[in-house]
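Thread: Newbie trying to understand structure tokens

Hi all, I'm a second-year student working on a class project, and my supervisor (Dr. K.) asked me to get a predicted structure for one chain before our next meeting. I've only ever worked with sequences, so writing a 3D structure as a token string is new to me. If someone could post the tokens and maybe explain what I'm looking at, I'd be very grateful. Here's the chain:
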Amino acid sequence: MTKNRLLNIAVNICRIIKGLYIILFIVLTTVFIHFQIDKEFYVNNVENNKTSFNYKVNGFRVNKSTKWKMENAGEDEEVYSLKNIQITSLYIIYFQCVGVLVFLFLSINEFQKVMLSVKNFQTFRKENVASFRRIGKYLFVFFLLTGYISVRFQKGGFSWLDISFTPLVFVLLAFIMAEIFKEGLLLKEENDLTV
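---
Reply by user tm_fold:
Sure, no problem. This is what the structure looks like when written as tokens:
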């Protein structure tokens, strides 16, 4: 009984997270469209955050940031203003964010499928092995999408290389779980044949 309660909680948490990803996608798309219609709204209402540009290794993360501008471009506040962001850079950032949301949504969806099959006492089956492999692939794409961000302005730009090794650990865990479930499936099939 406790097992089913915990699995029910896990499935419901997956549904809530998927719903949040859908809401984030809608908000992101709305802001993206509105920014193109009324850029001045964001220029006037968003404060310029000062970012530090450095290189450091922090746990499972490596960061490197660079900042550049053309000669005689003016003050940083003017060069790196939202009103001067290049439209191609804006689209790339938008599609990177959408990609992150999509692959996280797909990962949670696959994990929810596994939880539902375990809840229904169908733990060791081919679909679960495939689900864990897909989770590993989705998390690897997430790792690639979040590793590098570049923002170009009309007279300058900056970029972040932010490699977090935590997603790679989860990729490895997903593939290990796929192999564990595959071995469990083989044992189950052998057991079914002997009975």
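A couple of things are worth pointing out once you decode it. The CA atoms of residues 2 and 8 lie 10 Å apart. Strands lie at 55-58, 61-69, 148-153, 156-164. Feel free to ask follow-ups in this thread.
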